[in-house]
Amino acid sequence: MIIRKKLPRPKKLHEPLLHADHPRPVTRRDFLSAGLIGSQAVVVGSAGLFSLFGANKAHATLATDIQSLKQQCGIQTAGAGKIPFIAFDLSGGANLNGSEVLIGGAGGQLDFLSTAGYNKLGLPGNMLPNSPNPGSATNNFISTALGLAWHSDGAILRGILSKTATTTQAGTNGAVMAAMSQNDTQNNPHNPMYGIYTAGADGALLPLIGTQASTSGGNSMAPATMINLSVLPTVIRRSQDVTGLVNTGQLGTMFSDPNDTVSVLESVIRLSGGTNASTPSDKLGNVVIQPGNAQTDAVLKSQMLCGYTKSAALVDTFGSPAALNPDLDTNIVGGANSIFTAAEYATGNVAMTAAVMKMVVNGFAGAGTIQLGGYDYHDSTRATGEGRNFAAGQLIGACLEYAARVGVPIMIYVFTDGSLSSTNMVDNSTGGRGKFGWQGDNSSVAATFFLVYNPAGRATLLDGAGGLPAANHQQIGAYTSDGSVNTSASPVSNSVTALAYSVVLNYMALHGQQGNFASLFSQSGIASSQIDQLTAFAPIVNGVI
């Protein structure tokens, strides 16, 4: 019997969440999960002549001798050509499955759970995935619009569909992973970003970016065995952070033609000692007499030459910082058919997402993390969680749609710290949509998922690999009938570290490079015999795009 009680007022999208069963917020993580603060607006990238990054495609041609110096200095002028990768880190313990992505028993997504199991995941008896639904063409509550089976009224799904063209949806597929993680803590090693970099992802300007000033670039940690401190994520939260990466100081404002700036920088390089970064010499090739320690002077001179060369390469490539500016990209905002309206773009999370997706999808950064706060939404209503999941879905959909418009594939990974279970009380408000309210944290109902868009056509599920049918590649692991993670169903079911490595494995598999996984990540805890079991899709590109 359904007990009907008066539900609390649902929270507005950016309204903070404070729960009686949670201690008063103290740490940064507490404030993020409650939605009391956003991410810090910090740019780790610098703007001086001596510390700018490499570039992508040249607008003008650097002189031959300067091109040689670029090689000597190790200045990269293009990204690695890997599939763009964006991770969404939802802080607080969001619902990602059952009421969203479908998750089932050992037979896969459509191996349906019991009524009680779906109740725990927030669905009343009349909205189970296989319940009669006369309003649906399939007479149920199942949508495969994105390849991956979803509850047809899932808020994240509705958000994604609102921002994607039908052609983008038709080119999308995904996989869900049943895996426990701790509630309300940043200590879950969810973030696979360093592993994605190790697998080959790199950008023309930056290897990794994120919206938090943390080691992972987001809220949840990265596995300690993945971390490479030489490629800490640069913090990107707005267009100014992006355009600041190619700021050449006062020199960049002196000329209307960027090619003139390049010419000046080239002249400075030659006057500073020619085009040999290792041997100090004048522009005629004569060795320059240096005061003090000759070796130290040579190193200093080399650093100075390389610094000016990097600046010249940046200006030569981008001409103007506007080339990076999401504010000026009409696919994103300001056009007749832009992904975001001007009003949407004025909100912090939208502008932040636009900056990250602009960088990653265009190859300026290898991979990026977008952290969204306020997903600890168990306030006994359903409306609060539905609103926040819908907002996350719109941002996920925007990344898929932008990749489609640019014409490149993308992999998007969505995770959260823990999860939550329902109250078994129906929220019949407009926002509640007749579903059960969210009662409290519950790590046993956790899961993560990833989506893959391919402009050449929907990614193909493996079938038979590891002795498993396609359904067990689309759902990795399983739930028990009563709606909990089956902790023995897969190598990632009870190990967040293995879960993060499995995401990297699937990223490599999209390039046909899963055969290199064991040698690159010997510390993953994933045995070679388990690689096929944990891989969802056949390759969509051959090594690079």
Topology:
Blueprint: H1 28-33, H2 64-73, E1 85-90, H3 115-120, E2 142-146, E3 148-151, H4 155-163, H5 166-170, E4 172-178, H6 193-198, E5 206-210, E6 234-235, H7 239-243, H8 258-271, H9 294-318, H10 342-345, H11 348-361, E7 365-372, H12 383-406, E8 410-416, E9 420-427, E10 435-441, E11 447-453, H13 471-474, E12 475-476, H14 496-510, H15 517-520
Parallel strand pairs: 1-7, 1-8, 4-12, 5-6, 5-7
Antiparallel strand pairs: 2-3, 4-11, 8-11, 9-10
How do the strands line up in the largest sheet? Answer: 6-5-7-1-8-11-4-12
How does the overall form come out from the CA principal axes? globular
Question: How many strand segments?
Answer: 12
Mean pLDDT score, rounded? Answer: 85
| Estimated structural class | alpha/beta
Largest β sheet strand count, sense and barrel closure: 8 strands, mixed
Helix content: 25-40%
The number of helical segments is 15
Structure description:
This protein has 545 residues and is α/β, with parallel strands linked by helices. The chain has a domain at 31-40 and 82-243 and 344-530. Helix content is 28%, strand content 12%. It is built from 15 helices and twelve strands. The protein has helices at 28-33, 64-73, 115-120, 155-163, 166-170, 193-198, 239-243, 258-271, 294-318, 342-345, 348-361, 383-406, 471-474, 496-510, 517-520; strands at residues 85-90, 142-146, 148-151, 172-178, 206-210, 234-235, 365-372, 410-416, 420-427, 435-441, 447-453, 475-476. It has an eight-stranded mixed beta sheet, sandwiched between helices. Helix 2 (64-73) packs across helix 9, helix 8 (258-271) runs antiparallel to helix 9 (294-318) and helix 11 (348-361) packs parallel to helix 12 (383-406). The longest helix is centred in the middle third of the chain and has 25 residues, at 294-318. The protein is globular, with a radius of gyration of 25 Å. The N and C termini lie far apart (55 Å). Residues 39-60, 249-255 and 277-290 have low confidence and may be disordered.
